[in-house]
Amino acid sequence: MANRTVKDAKSIRGTNPQYLIEKIIRSRIYDSKYWKEECFALTAELLVDKAMELRYVGGVHGGFIYPTPFLCLVLKMLQIQPEKDIVVEFIKNEEFKYVRALGAFYMRLTGSSVDCYKYLEPLYNDNRKLRRQNREGQYAIVHMDEFIDELLREERLCDVILPRIQKRHVLEENNELDQKVSALDDDLDDDMPSDEDNPELDAKENKRDKDRRDRDRRRERSRDRDRREKDRKRERSRSRDRERRRERERERDKEREREKERERERREMRDRDREKERRDRDRHEPDRRRERGGRY
What is the structure's pLDDT at 102? Predict the structure, then answer.
Protein backbone atom coordinates (compact mmCIF):
# COMPACT_ATOMS: atom_id res chain seq x y z
CA MET A 1 0.00 0.00 0.00
CA ALA A 2 2.77 2.48 0.90
CA ASN A 3 4.30 2.15 -2.55
CA ARG A 4 1.18 2.89 -4.55
CA THR A 5 0.60 6.13 -6.41
CA VAL A 6 -2.02 8.43 -4.89
CA LYS A 7 -5.53 7.79 -6.14
CA ASP A 8 -6.13 11.20 -7.74
CA ALA A 9 -2.77 11.26 -9.56
CA LYS A 10 -2.82 12.09 -13.24
CA SER A 11 -1.07 9.81 -15.69
CA ILE A 12 2.17 11.18 -17.13
CA ARG A 13 2.72 10.48 -20.82
CA GLY A 14 0.01 7.84 -20.70
CA THR A 15 1.38 5.82 -17.79
CA ASN A 16 1.62 5.68 -14.02
CA PRO A 17 4.04 8.44 -12.91
CA GLN A 18 6.18 5.97 -10.95
CA TYR A 19 6.74 3.93 -14.11
CA LEU A 20 8.97 6.75 -15.43
CA ILE A 21 11.66 5.06 -13.32
CA GLU A 22 12.60 1.56 -14.45
CA LYS A 23 11.19 -1.38 -12.52
CA ILE A 24 14.48 -2.78 -11.24
CA ILE A 25 15.48 0.61 -9.82
CA ARG A 26 12.01 1.13 -8.32
CA SER A 27 12.31 -2.24 -6.59
CA ARG A 28 15.70 -1.28 -5.16
CA ILE A 29 14.29 2.01 -3.92
CA TYR A 30 11.34 0.28 -2.23
CA ASP A 31 13.77 -2.07 -0.48
CA SER A 32 16.18 0.68 0.60
CA LYS A 33 16.51 1.80 4.20
CA TYR A 34 16.13 5.49 3.32
CA TRP A 35 12.80 4.88 1.58
CA LYS A 36 11.37 2.85 4.45
CA GLU A 37 12.55 5.15 7.24
CA GLU A 38 12.59 8.65 5.72
CA CYS A 39 10.03 8.59 2.90
CA PHE A 40 7.16 6.84 4.68
CA ALA A 41 3.98 8.95 4.78
CA LEU A 42 5.72 12.00 3.32
CA THR A 43 3.50 14.83 2.09
CA ALA A 44 4.40 17.69 -0.23
CA GLU A 45 5.02 19.96 2.79
CA LEU A 46 7.20 17.45 4.65
CA LEU A 47 9.11 16.58 1.50
CA VAL A 48 10.60 20.09 1.46
CA ASP A 49 12.38 19.40 4.75
CA LYS A 50 13.85 16.17 3.39
CA ALA A 51 14.97 17.95 0.24
CA MET A 52 16.75 20.59 2.33
CA GLU A 53 18.81 17.79 3.94
CA LEU A 54 20.19 16.55 0.60
CA ARG A 55 23.95 16.85 0.20
CA TYR A 56 24.48 15.37 -3.28
CA VAL A 57 22.66 14.24 -6.41
CA GLY A 58 22.95 10.89 -8.15
CA GLY A 59 21.21 7.72 -9.24
CA VAL A 60 22.28 4.28 -8.04
CA HIS A 61 25.68 2.94 -7.04
CA GLY A 62 27.40 -0.28 -6.06
CA GLY A 63 27.05 -3.82 -7.27
CA PHE A 64 23.73 -4.26 -5.43
CA ILE A 65 22.29 -1.05 -6.97
CA TYR A 66 21.87 1.13 -3.89
CA PRO A 67 19.71 4.21 -4.63
CA THR A 68 20.71 7.68 -3.47
CA PRO A 69 18.41 9.80 -1.27
CA PHE A 70 18.03 12.16 -4.24
CA LEU A 71 16.57 9.39 -6.40
CA CYS A 72 14.33 8.21 -3.55
CA LEU A 73 12.83 11.69 -3.23
CA VAL A 74 12.31 11.88 -7.00
CA LEU A 75 10.28 8.65 -6.85
CA LYS A 76 8.36 9.99 -3.83
CA MET A 77 7.43 13.11 -5.78
CA LEU A 78 6.24 10.91 -8.65
CA GLN A 79 4.18 8.93 -6.14
CA ILE A 80 2.45 11.85 -4.40
CA GLN A 81 2.46 14.14 -7.49
CA PRO A 82 2.71 17.59 -5.83
CA GLU A 83 1.04 20.63 -7.37
CA LYS A 84 2.86 22.41 -10.17
CA ASP A 85 3.15 25.57 -8.04
CA ILE A 86 5.11 23.63 -5.42
CA VAL A 87 7.50 22.28 -8.06
CA VAL A 88 8.00 25.79 -9.43
CA GLU A 89 8.84 27.01 -5.93
CA PHE A 90 11.42 24.22 -5.67
CA ILE A 91 13.00 25.47 -8.89
CA LYS A 92 12.95 29.11 -7.78
CA ASN A 93 14.55 28.31 -4.43
CA GLU A 94 17.89 30.11 -4.41
CA GLU A 95 18.98 29.25 -0.87
CA PHE A 96 19.08 25.45 -1.12
CA LYS A 97 20.67 24.33 -4.36
CA TYR A 98 19.75 20.64 -4.01
CA VAL A 99 16.08 21.58 -3.57
CA ARG A 100 16.37 23.43 -6.86
CA ALA A 101 18.07 20.43 -8.51
CA LEU A 102 15.30 18.11 -7.23
CA GLY A 103 12.56 20.37 -8.58
CA ALA A 104 14.32 20.73 -11.94
CA PHE A 105 14.71 16.95 -12.28
CA TYR A 106 11.03 16.36 -11.46
CA MET A 107 9.94 19.08 -13.91
CA ARG A 108 12.04 17.46 -16.64
CA LEU A 109 10.36 14.09 -16.01
CA THR A 110 6.75 15.30 -15.81
CA GLY A 111 6.60 18.71 -17.49
CA SER A 112 5.76 19.52 -21.09
CA SER A 113 8.41 20.63 -23.55
CA VAL A 114 7.42 24.28 -23.14
CA ASP A 115 7.50 24.06 -19.32
CA CYS A 116 10.92 22.40 -19.37
CA TYR A 117 12.46 25.21 -21.40
CA LYS A 118 10.50 27.91 -19.59
CA TYR A 119 11.49 26.91 -16.06
CA LEU A 120 14.87 25.24 -16.57
CA GLU A 121 16.66 27.57 -18.99
CA PRO A 122 16.83 30.46 -16.45
CA LEU A 123 18.91 28.13 -14.26
CA TYR A 124 21.77 28.44 -16.75
CA ASN A 125 22.67 31.55 -14.74
CA ASP A 126 23.22 29.46 -11.61
CA ASN A 127 26.90 28.49 -11.43
CA ARG A 128 26.91 26.93 -7.97
CA LYS A 129 28.72 23.64 -7.44
CA LEU A 130 26.90 20.35 -6.90
CA ARG A 131 28.26 17.05 -5.66
CA ARG A 132 27.25 14.09 -7.81
CA GLN A 133 27.74 10.43 -6.92
CA ASN A 134 28.63 8.13 -9.80
CA ARG A 135 27.94 4.41 -10.28
CA GLU A 136 31.09 3.45 -8.36
CA GLY A 137 30.00 5.46 -5.32
CA GLN A 138 32.60 8.18 -5.89
CA TYR A 139 31.84 11.90 -5.87
CA ALA A 140 32.53 14.49 -8.55
CA ILE A 141 31.88 18.22 -8.76
CA VAL A 142 29.46 19.57 -11.36
CA HIS A 143 27.87 22.98 -11.71
CA MET A 144 24.19 23.71 -11.69
CA ASP A 145 24.23 25.02 -15.28
CA GLU A 146 25.95 21.78 -16.40
CA PHE A 147 23.32 19.73 -14.59
CA ILE A 148 20.53 21.70 -16.29
CA ASP A 149 22.21 21.37 -19.68
CA GLU A 150 22.36 17.60 -19.25
CA LEU A 151 18.69 17.55 -18.26
CA LEU A 152 17.72 19.30 -21.49
CA ARG A 153 20.10 17.47 -23.83
CA GLU A 154 20.88 13.98 -22.54
CA GLU A 155 18.76 10.83 -22.88
CA ARG A 156 19.60 9.45 -19.43
CA LEU A 157 20.64 11.16 -16.20
CA CYS A 158 21.01 9.79 -12.67
CA ASP A 159 20.22 6.32 -14.11
CA VAL A 160 16.75 7.48 -15.21
CA ILE A 161 15.67 7.57 -18.85
CA LEU A 162 14.49 11.12 -19.56
CA PRO A 163 11.31 11.50 -21.65
CA ARG A 164 11.80 13.02 -25.08
CA ILE A 165 11.02 16.71 -25.54
CA GLN A 166 10.73 18.79 -28.67
CA LYS A 167 13.69 20.76 -29.95
CA ARG A 168 13.71 24.40 -29.00
CA HIS A 169 13.81 25.72 -32.55
CA VAL A 170 10.61 23.79 -33.36
CA LEU A 171 8.79 25.45 -30.47
CA GLU A 172 10.13 28.84 -31.58
CA GLU A 173 8.85 28.28 -35.13
CA ASN A 174 5.42 27.38 -33.72
CA ASN A 175 5.44 30.57 -31.60
CA GLU A 176 5.20 28.53 -28.42
CA LEU A 177 8.49 29.94 -27.09
CA ASP A 178 10.18 33.27 -27.46
CA GLN A 179 13.60 33.40 -29.02
CA LYS A 180 16.33 32.53 -26.56
CA VAL A 181 18.13 35.55 -25.11
CA SER A 182 21.49 35.08 -23.46
CA ALA A 183 22.02 36.60 -20.03
CA LEU A 184 25.26 38.04 -21.36
CA ASP A 185 23.26 40.27 -23.71
CA ASP A 186 21.37 41.73 -20.75
CA ASP A 187 24.65 42.41 -18.98
CA LEU A 188 25.94 44.19 -22.05
CA ASP A 189 22.83 46.36 -22.26
CA ASP A 190 23.09 47.27 -18.59
CA ASP A 191 26.75 48.16 -18.88
CA MET A 192 26.37 50.50 -21.87
CA PRO A 193 27.84 53.93 -21.04
CA SER A 194 25.56 56.95 -20.93
CA ASP A 195 28.31 59.31 -22.17
CA GLU A 196 28.72 58.49 -25.86
CA ASP A 197 31.29 61.22 -26.42
CA ASN A 198 34.05 59.43 -24.50
CA PRO A 199 36.01 57.36 -27.10
CA GLU A 200 38.30 55.81 -24.49
CA LEU A 201 35.32 54.53 -22.51
CA ASP A 202 33.74 53.24 -25.73
CA ALA A 203 36.93 51.36 -26.62
CA LYS A 204 37.04 49.73 -23.17
CA GLU A 205 33.39 48.74 -23.40
CA ASN A 206 33.84 47.36 -26.88
CA LYS A 207 36.83 45.32 -25.73
CA ARG A 208 34.81 44.06 -22.74
CA ASP A 209 31.95 43.14 -25.04
CA LYS A 210 34.29 41.32 -27.38
CA ASP A 211 35.87 39.42 -24.50
CA ARG A 212 32.46 38.35 -23.24
CA ARG A 213 31.37 37.23 -26.66
CA ASP A 214 34.62 35.30 -27.06
CA ARG A 215 34.09 33.60 -23.70
CA ASP A 216 30.54 32.79 -24.68
CA ARG A 217 31.70 31.29 -27.99
CA ARG A 218 34.47 29.31 -26.30
CA ARG A 219 31.99 27.95 -23.76
CA GLU A 220 29.59 27.00 -26.52
CA ARG A 221 32.37 25.33 -28.52
CA SER A 222 33.48 23.43 -25.44
CA ARG A 223 29.93 22.20 -24.86
CA ASP A 224 29.64 21.25 -28.51
CA ARG A 225 32.89 19.29 -28.31
CA ASP A 226 31.70 17.54 -25.17
CA ARG A 227 28.41 16.67 -26.82
CA ARG A 228 30.14 15.40 -29.95
CA GLU A 229 32.54 13.34 -27.85
CA LYS A 230 29.62 11.84 -25.91
CA ASP A 231 27.83 11.09 -29.17
CA ARG A 232 30.94 9.38 -30.55
CA LYS A 233 31.37 7.32 -27.38
CA ARG A 234 27.70 6.37 -27.48
CA GLU A 235 27.96 5.36 -31.14
CA ARG A 236 31.12 3.32 -30.49
CA SER A 237 29.37 1.57 -27.63
CA ARG A 238 26.37 0.81 -29.83
CA SER A 239 28.67 -0.47 -32.58
CA ARG A 240 30.41 -2.78 -30.11
CA ASP A 241 27.05 -4.04 -28.88
CA ARG A 242 25.89 -4.71 -32.44
CA GLU A 243 29.13 -6.53 -33.24
CA ARG A 244 28.78 -8.67 -30.09
CA ARG A 245 25.20 -9.53 -31.04
CA ARG A 246 26.27 -10.48 -34.55
CA GLU A 247 29.11 -12.59 -33.15
CA ARG A 248 26.71 -14.37 -30.80
CA GLU A 249 24.34 -15.01 -33.72
CA ARG A 250 27.20 -16.46 -35.78
CA GLU A 251 28.21 -18.71 -32.88
CA ARG A 252 24.64 -19.91 -32.48
CA ASP A 253 24.42 -20.61 -36.22
CA LYS A 254 27.65 -22.57 -36.09
CA GLU A 255 26.45 -24.53 -33.09
CA ARG A 256 23.18 -25.35 -34.87
CA GLU A 257 25.14 -26.52 -37.93
CA ARG A 258 27.37 -28.68 -35.76
CA GLU A 259 24.31 -30.17 -34.04
CA LYS A 260 22.73 -30.94 -37.41
CA GLU A 261 25.95 -32.60 -38.56
CA ARG A 262 26.11 -34.72 -35.40
CA GLU A 263 22.47 -35.73 -35.85
CA ARG A 264 23.13 -36.67 -39.46
CA GLU A 265 26.09 -38.83 -38.44
CA ARG A 266 23.98 -40.55 -35.77
CA ARG A 267 21.30 -41.33 -38.34
CA GLU A 268 23.86 -42.74 -40.77
CA MET A 269 25.37 -44.87 -38.03
CA ARG A 270 21.93 -46.24 -37.09
CA ASP A 271 21.23 -46.99 -40.75
CA ARG A 272 24.56 -48.81 -41.11
CA ASP A 273 23.84 -50.85 -37.97
CA ARG A 274 20.40 -51.82 -39.24
CA GLU A 275 21.84 -52.74 -42.64
CA LYS A 276 24.50 -54.89 -41.01
CA GLU A 277 21.93 -56.66 -38.84
CA ARG A 278 19.76 -57.30 -41.88
CA ARG A 279 22.68 -58.78 -43.85
CA ASP A 280 23.66 -61.01 -40.92
CA ARG A 281 20.08 -62.17 -40.57
CA ASP A 282 19.83 -62.97 -44.28
CA ARG A 283 23.16 -64.83 -44.25
CA HIS A 284 22.24 -67.08 -41.32
CA GLU A 285 18.63 -67.70 -42.41
CA PRO A 286 19.42 -70.94 -44.48
CA ASP A 287 21.29 -72.45 -41.54
CA ARG A 288 18.37 -71.81 -39.24
CA ARG A 289 16.00 -73.37 -41.77
CA ARG A 290 18.16 -76.52 -42.04
CA GLU A 291 18.31 -76.78 -38.28
CA ARG A 292 14.56 -76.52 -38.04
CA GLY A 293 14.14 -79.12 -40.85
CA GLY A 294 16.50 -81.63 -39.24
CA ARG A 295 14.91 -81.18 -35.89
CA TYR A 296 11.41 -82.01 -37.11
Answer: 94
